[in-house]
Amino acid sequence: MDSTELRIAAVVPCHNEEAAVGKVVADLLAAVPGIVVYVYDNLSTDKTAERAREAGAIVRHEHTKGKGNVVRRAFADIEADVYLMIDGDDTYEASAAPLMIKTLLDGPYDHILGVRKQDENGSAYRAGHETGNKVLNGVVGKVFGENVEDMLSGFRVFSRRFVKSFPAVSREFEIETELTVHSLHLRVPRTAVPVGFRDRPAGSESKLRTYHDGFKILALIIGLARHERPVLFYGLFGTLSWLVSIVLSIPIVVEFYNTGEVPRFPTLFLGFTLLLLGSLAWTAGLILDGIRRSRHEAARLVYLRYSAVGAEDVRLTGNGGDARTGGAGA
Q1: For burial by CB atoms within 10 Å, which of 5, 13, 36, 272 has the most?
Q2: Which of 83-87, 259-263, 283-287 has the lowest average pLDDT?
Q3: Do 29 and 68 belong to one domain?
């Protein structure tokens, strides 16, 4: 199926991006014929909404602060066959959008990740951000058993069935991590495409807070590991408790065997308490793993309710329908 027959929607989260959003919208409209661009103004105090509307976007407002809240709202409100998400700061090359959409359709895939590639002399990555991104990619790879090239990229393309099966729990910049983990645990068809990455335009200011956002993302990864790999998470604590218990208890048991006395009863009590806690941790991990499997099965069933992108039963827009409506010609 040709991409011009599909409803393609772009979601552009924005907070005070009047210096850049107009170009982002114009570039998307020029790169992808027929695309409908939605700019979600998230409590901007400048003229972001006016600039986006002038450039040809549909402007909507999300009054709860945070990129995650914007994506949650957009994914719930917009009906389309293909969804493109891009930041409104003009740091990504929107010209990569056609290739990403074509890759999604040719797969067919459900998630296309735009992997940021900046020029050798570029400075788009702030100090520490590139290193932090690599560290977080490695952590997620170890926890979930699959390599991730650019977990924090804000330029992605999704199928309808990915979007409508995505719970979108995160509130702020952790949303990219949540999107990545959703694709990993649901094991959807996915791939990556290199995209250009450049400095912000003059007059545009980054909203990222390196350490604050980094720690929030790391906390999210730990929380996701607890939910998605409970046997590993709780089993680690359980095993450590058992090891400490053995180290504390064996000398006392040996001494009791030789003398018939327990000279350090509090230590023995602590050892048995740690043994009990370790057993409880392993039990919790095994129970939660069963719950996890049930959650994944439920999420998979929701995912399977929707056709693959480009399938014959996808609603077309040949009679004038677009991503603003629920169906063709509506």
Answers
A1: 13
A2: 259-263
A3: yes
pLDDT one-digit tens code per residue, 114-166: 999 876 665 555 555 667 777 778 877 777 778 788 988 999 999 999 999 99
User: What are the φ/ψ torsions at residue 39 (nearest 5 degrees)?
Assistant: -100, 120
- Strand ranges in 15-57 using DSSP code E only, listed in sequence order: 36-41
Question: Do 244 and 193 have their domain in common?
Answer: no
Query: Residue 316 domain-assigned?
Result: no
30 and 148 co-located in one domain = yes
For helices 175-185 and 129-144, give the axis angle rounded to 10 degrees: 30
Tell me: do 194 and 244 sit in the same domain: no
Across the range 65-86, mean pLDDT stands at 96
Range of the domain at 211: 3-225
Cβ burial of 91 (10 Å; 0-12, 13-18, 19+) is buried
94 within some domain = yes
C-alpha–C-alpha distance, residues 113 and 92, integer Å: 12
Same domain membership, residue 78 and residue 113: yes
Instruction: Return the pLDDT at 317.
Output: 39
Q: Which amino acid is at 220?
A: L
Cis before 108 (ω within 30) = yes
